[in-house]
Amino acid sequence: MPTFRADPDSSNPPVEEGRYYAFIQSVKEDSVTLEITDATNRLLDNSHESVSWRSELREHWNTALRSTDPDTRRTAGTELASSLHEFRSSFITVSTAQTLDEIVDSHPSPAPDTWNQWHEQGRWLVLEVIVSAGFSGTVEHISPVSQPRQRLLERTFSMALWPSASAPDIAVELNTIVDIAACVVLDVGQASANALVSSEGRPYLYFDAGAPQSHDIATSATYCTHEGPLVILSHWHKDHWAGEKHNPELLACKWIAPRQNISLHQSQFASRIIAAGGELLIMKRNSVGRKRADLQDPLSPGLLLEYCSGPQGNLNSCGLALQVSWPQHDEHWLFPGDADYKYLPPRMTTPNAPTLLVATHHGAAPFARTQAPSPGAKLTNRRLIYSYGAHNTYSHPTPRAKTAHETAGWTYPASGYWGADVRATVGSAAQGRCSIMVGIDTVALPTGHLTRPPHNLTIRT
Questions:
Q1: pTM score
Q2: Are 121 and 131 in contact, with CB atoms under 8 Å apart?
């Protein structure tokens, strides 16, 4: 029988013996991380009470995401947060040393035969904890839920009830970004956050606003929200939005996020945005967000926000990627989030090759036969940047990632990840850890605001 260990985060209760519904958050070679919630909750059936509760949930999501009145949105967000906290979730890591045949219950229909298939399909599972010692124990069986139960859980915890924002709504927000002089890849440990800052050094846009879950927690409180920045979320993994834990003022910002297969804790996070007075725009799948550059303005960027084409259940590779361009300077910056490069929209890598590339997925190995984007011909400020936490358990960055980027034409130093075209937020023996700033052309880098109190960032170029 498979064993598990639970995340001992203080917000999670110890795992007791009993029946749980589980949603796969990530798959590794020898384990999977599951979010579990009590399968016996009174609202997880088709009783009159449960149907009525889900109907109210739908109304709250519609109001929260569509209303133009801030107070009405905030009230709906508070109701959502209260409703969703009817459920408590915990994260457990389950050993996959055994084969699925040994741990899967008999199932009336053919079941997927790999954890990856379940993950990519967004399948909910049911499991039985038979031995528990607080934050560790043993699971007796794990199997996919029935299709009717899958639909019920999706209606309860996923984005099935959430309305999408229109393409013009997304364009309106992107068109507010008119003055960008530099990018700062923030030192947030094993997480991801990128700030696009104005000529005065204040962030107008964040592409991801993460914080680490288990490494370098002290580096997390780095976010400047003076200008009420727009936040674009590449995908719904927690290390890309958990900056709100240390910087709750991020919740009052306007967020653009992808439509993906999510579960309870992500829905609870979305409700916190609305309850705090922020806004959440869910971008329609198969739509494109675009802002054209003003060729007469040296600091006016063009923006292209588009979905990646990976499997729907793989949050990393079916989220949003961002390209920021200044055609007047022949500068093109590419932010893939955690998407494998083969799933990036082709127009982001051709014909305008990136002069700045934030390495995907903290330097994780790309999939087999994936080609990394080649750098643009312009040598000034050409940067490949790695954002990862020192001594992380994922072995980021991987040798295969380095090989893929070198093969594509990015120049590495003789050793390490600092020098030539390459920088890393963990720094080097000589440089030390830091946030990394890259500017456009000959525009002076506006570091002062972020390096002074209260932000006190260490910024290197």
A1: 0.93
A2: no
